[in-house]
Structure formats: structure tokens, C-alpha cells
Amino acid sequence: MQHSENNTDGAWKLPALAAAAPFCLFLFGHQKGMTIKMFDAAYRWFGAAGLIGLPMVTLSIEKCLYDTMNCYQGSDPNAKPEGGGGGFPSGGSTLPSLSLIPVNPKGLYYKPPLRPSEAASE
Length: 122
Fold this sequence. Notes:
elongated; mainly alpha; single chain
């Protein structure tokens, strides 16, 4: 199946859920006072470095979820985008993949990797 901007195959639902679920959990935890507890624990265990490192940890968790959903759907998170893109904000292919699973060859958006001879001709 060819990917297009106006597809109606419903493949967007899984990544949308993967993005929305942690955010909803964050909102629920924030309502229960867990945000303050998280900052307190980071400061108690690691001092000021814990407060500085907390955004990196949460961004790593977000990238892990995003890369895992991409791999599940058959899209390689390290593949360079077609058309020479890849700058901010879509430069995630230059970062290491934090996926928990390998690329699913039966996924909806799977493309076999190019052989070295094919990659050299492009």
C-alpha cells in the first residue's frame, strides 16, 4: 500500500495512541502530585545534575516510543527521508534508534533496504 498524506487506512491510529498515552499518563500523574515527587527524587538522588538531566531522560523515553512504533509499522527510523529532507524538526534519522524491536518486514510501510550497488547509483 502506498503512503500518501490523505490515506484512510487507519495506520495513523497506533502512533497517535503511542504519543497520546504517555501524555495522558503525565496529566493524570501531574494531577496526583507525581510531577513534584519526580523532581524531588531527581534532586535528592543526583542533585542539580538530576534536574538538568531529567529532560534528556524524558526525551529519550519519547524517542524510544516513537522509534518502536515506527519499527512496528515497518518504517526504519534511521532511513534518510526521500527528497533530501532531514533537517530540524525531522532530523531524527541522524540520531541512534532507541527502538525496542527490529523493523517489522510485515509492517504497512516496510521498504527493503537498498543494496550498496543501488545506493551508489542514487
